[in-house]
Amino acid sequence: MPDVNFIVDGKQLTAPAGTLLIDACKSAGIEIPAFCYYPGLSLQAACRMCVVRVEKMPKLQTACTTPVTEGMVVQTETPEIAQARKATLQLLLGNHPLDCPVCDAGGECELQDMTFKYGAADSFYAEPKNHREEQKWSPVVYFDRPRCILCYRCVRMCGEGMDVFALGIQNRGSSSIIAPNVPAQMSPDQLAHVDCEQCGMCIDACPVGALTSGTYRYKTRPWEMNHVATICTHCGDGCKTTLGVRSTSDGSEIVRGDNRDKSGINGDFLCNKGRYAFDFANHGERITQPLVRHADGTLKPVSWEVALEHAGSRLRELRDSRGGSSIGVIGGNRLTNEEAYLLQKFARTVIGTNNIDHHRTADYVTFAQALSGTKGRTASQHDTASFPAVLLVGGDPTNQNPLTAWNLRSDVRLNKARVYVANTETIKLRRQAKAFLQLAPYGYGAFANYLAGDAAAASSAAADANALSAFRDAVKAEEKLLILIGSELRGAELKKLIEFGLTIPGAKFALLSDYVNSRGAADMGLLPDMLPGYVPFGAKHPLASEYAAPAAPGLDMLGIFDAAAEGELSALYVVGANPIARYAVDPAALKDTFVVVQEMFLTETAALADVILPAANLYEKSGSVTNSYGDLQQVAKAADRAGVRSDFEMIVRIADKMGAEVPKLVPFGKGLRADMGQSRGAHSGEADRHAVWLTANNLEPRLSPFDPFAILDEIQRLVPGYSLLRLQLLSGNDQHLEPAAPSGLVQITGQSARRDLVLPAHDSLFTSGTLGRYSAMLNDLQQNEAQRAAASSAHTAAD
Amino acid sequence: MPTLVSHPDEVKVISRRFGQGAADIDKYVELDGYKAVQKAIAEGPEKMSGWIIDTMKASGLRGRGGAGFPTGLKWSFVPKQSEKPKYVLVNGDESEPGTCKDHVIFLEDPHAVIEGTMIAGLAIGAKTGFIYLRGEYRYLLKIMEKAVADAYAKGFLGKNIFGSGLDFDVITQSGAGAYEVGEESALMESLEGKRGVPRIKPPFPAVVGLYGGPTVINNAETIASAPHILLMGGEAYAKIGSERNGGTRLFGISGHVERPGVYELPMGYNLKKAIYEVAGGVKDGKKLKAVVPGGSSCPVLTADEIDVGLDFDQMGKAGTMLGSGGIVVLDETVSIVEFALRTINFYQHESCGWCIPCREGTDWIKKTLTRVHAGGGANKDIDNVQYLAENMLGRTFCPLGDAAAMPTLGFVKKFRKEFEEYIAGKRVDTPLITVQDLVGAH
């Protein structure tokens, strides 16, 4: 679109023709108020707040539906306009309950803001307000009808944004009401409910307090919380969630999760897990004291000093007596990059073992290897909202990567993107797809081969040969294609698909995974056969020389437990993982192994431990994480809990107890002995005050050994692809990284073995691995779903 | 069923076949029925569309729904080429209180609507026409359905109409009883099976209309005028009316008159004459108090203001509107307070609720007037009602807000004295509003 020139409030402005006046003004710093307008959703022109005066037009015009044209002259704030807006507010307030002092939205309410601005304080209505009782639509969505101003944002958000269509409008005129899709008369409890994905986007979009969150309502006021923007721990999309935090007697608790400033990689979106499922932190079974197994076999609480000493000295003893290679280390995919990096460095340099692995939820090793030597071929999460064409093979983003699904829907809706979906299941995103190809069971490998030109693979790829070839031809005709790959594809299949994709010059790739740092755990080298950045042993890389790690590949996840079963594993160090449950390991395998576990809860794995160290979760520490796409983001410490420590600190302290040279492990200062007695809150992300003072006085800052940023320098310096921009990270922006393996060095081997290692969690919208079990809200939502399903089947039976 | 009325001043164009049993297709054919469409087809495929549109333009016919947009011009806006099918849509959602003209057409001359629809279809290149009747006109729908079936049976509708090689289908549809769908885009939503709420314009229906296709939507009277215009010629039709207001119009005169009914008068006919001569004057020799000239949404005229010509321009100059041609005559016994309340009750009930000023404004005017009517009013209420109406006017999503605000403003401005007297007056028996009622109010 060519640019047009127009004048707003005397300012000469330029914008592409067709831009809506309200958007053009916003870009120029002129804010036009609106209730019903929501960027990206369909236009309503219902609230009449955005009225402006356009020269040569007889009436006031709505800025939300007026495209800018050449020579247009607009006034946005005149007495006439202010009066129109004031009158509209007076009309709204006529029926509004004015319970602002108790309303959740008080202080964050657009109606409140507008009333302050236009001063519609005087009223001339004598009649009673229309009142209706509030409704509990679900455990997380409450509707307070009298507060509703009928802007229809929720209706559009649910329908257009989420493709759920659970909300609609009933009645007409002043009886109009937002209604959920399970009306009272169809509900066993005779109350209206909502049958939906419980994403909470309707609450987010609501400009007033009509829709409120079950986890937050009436708990506190917005100004009584600290608002900490961090990254959601639950899936691989890496949404920014802003946690509302309040002080408590034993730390500080998270009261709310929401998408407060919409500044994250997720834009307008946040799903139910990012919004509500922070409550695991307050679960009653949280471990807040170190536990050590006594001679009688019971776990008893001990002091931190005792627990660390016991773990450290025993690990040292076993390393010295049976060798480092008799010890296994398992990391988690909710650790920060700094922790994951530190853990593998600790394993390789302090323990002296390559027996390192993590719960792999997607085959990032193959992904990195297949793309080695390429540049600009990996997609950022941002690409999912803007690419003109997308091929989705496998996966179910609606359930497992909700932001990806949201972006794809937006891309189709706003950019008319062509989405091609190939799946063995009829996933929901097929509804947005230009073409949906039903693959045969286990047909991904055959499909990849077929795409790559093996016509013989057709019959095992899909039952419908015509659909298959039409699908392939359509995909091949695309010039700029985003290829999203589900975790079902691994090893040779994944490699084949990427090889096919590489024949399309404008193709980019992403491999979807399950948790906040599944990608980071692999990137940071929690792998038995590779150093961070997928650097192979024996490669000429500074990592190899600096580490002096054992040169032979170690045992992978399954190998570690096989070794344990054969009595060859002297010790196992598990940091934030639950392999016993996830990999269905026989607990008896560990009977002769000394097990140290850092965990929040007494999980199946922790229950077998000799030492349990109570760990902080992702919301209680700072650092960085990498999402499925390779977008790096900062994690900020929000909450605090007395008695727990970050995994970072615990690893450093165990290393110290093992007699390691801490400054070598964590390069936190030059030539200084670590002051292990204190942490000065540095691991908490707060500024080290002493260091600040030193810097201010031109002296060398002495960072704490528990400060994750001490090791970020090393990651930045050594890990291929992680040449990040520090300022970008610290300012809360995301940045795309490409930790592809150095080219030409590696061959994809051991496919059959690796296949078993990749174990997608297959989380639904209401589950989140082991952690999800400890979220009361996720459990409530699952129960709600089950009850609703039971009720609806009973209802159907009764019919 | 009202009996048909007649007056020597009438010029019978559209009402030419009324009372002659033209609902019967043979009778209709006998009375020059389906000749206009054949005349158009005789122009040949090249010239047909242009000829129809030129004739309509020359006739000066302006939309009979109330907005008065030139019909020929409207038809000419439809793009010649379109990827999506084009449609003709007949707006038979005659809902404006006081209006009863389309009703007589459906009853007395249903085939004129069908023939007009075909003509509009030939003009814009549509193959399908919809005739949409308001929900309350179910009994007329039967007549229309029979007429359509008869036209198919004769081969007038369907494939290859009158040997033109062109196909045309007509589908009838009933509304669900909402005033709002009289608005053209809300009608399309309703016809598509959706909630009857207007669409954002632009795009206008001529570009993006029913099912996304270019659509001509006209009032039933407008459409039914088309066959007559084609037969008599555009210029001849234009000559009947006043300047820039071609032809005749059906006026429904109701209320306190001696001979209420639907009369076809030339455009520009004097309103006073229409009341006192055509309709026989105020009933029982009472004094005239006020006239609502074009359906309830038009600002009221006092007895002194009715010496005005009935066309779009003259009525506009008089500070009111020609509207839908429903003239409601009120004699001296009518309480304007009650009449204003009844009027706003209708608009409050019919507001679709989409936009704030209309949804909330009609509701608060109704609440306030209800209290005033019950005897609990204060002079400040009159100011409040005026303030509400003034702030609705021109600020709503569709014209329904204006339709509610304009008459209300007319009543409180022109009859303020009566409101004040009513408030100060003799209503001591009606309880005043109590303090308890006010608790919880804003």
Descriptive keywords:
heterodimer; A: 799 residues; alpha/beta; 7-stranded mixed β-sheet; 5-stranded mixed β-sheet; 27 helices; 31 strands; globular; B: 442 residues; 4-stranded parallel β-sheet; 18 helices; 9 strands; 11% strand; disordered C terminus
Main pleated sheet of chain A: 7 strands, mixed
Low-confidence stretches of chain A: 671-688, 744-748, 750-755
Tally of strands of chain B: 9
Radius of gyration of chain B, in Å, reads: 23 Å
Shape of chain A: globular
> Helicity of chain A, in percent?
25-40%
| Structural class by secondary-structure content of chain B | alpha/beta
Provide a count of the helices of chain B: 18
Order of helices and strands of chain B: HHHHEHHEHEHEHHEEHEEHEHHHHHH
Average residue pLDDT of chain B: 93
Task: Give your account of this protein's structure.
The complex is a heterodimer of chains A (799) and B (442). The longest helix of chain A is centred in the C-terminal third of the chain and has 23 residues, at 776-798. Chain A is an alpha/beta fold and 799 residues long. Chain A has 27 helices and 31 strands. In chain A, the strands form 8 sheets. A 7-stranded mixed beta sheet of chain A has the order 15-14-27-26-25-16-17, with helices on one face. Chain B is α/β, with parallel strands linked by helices and 442 residues long. Chain B has 18 helices and 9 strands. Chain B has helices at residues 25-30, 35-42, 44-59, 71-76, 101-108, 110-124, 138-153, 184-191, 220-232, 234-240, 271-278, 312-317, 336-350, 356-374, 379-392, 400-414, 416-424, 435-438, and strands at residues 87-92, 128-133, 169-174, 215-219, 248-255, 261-266, 288-292, 301-302, 326-331. In chain B, β7 (288-292) and β8 form a beta hairpin. The longest helix of chain B has 19 residues, at 356-374. Chain B is globular and about 75 Å long. The interface between A and B is large, with 39 and 39 residues.
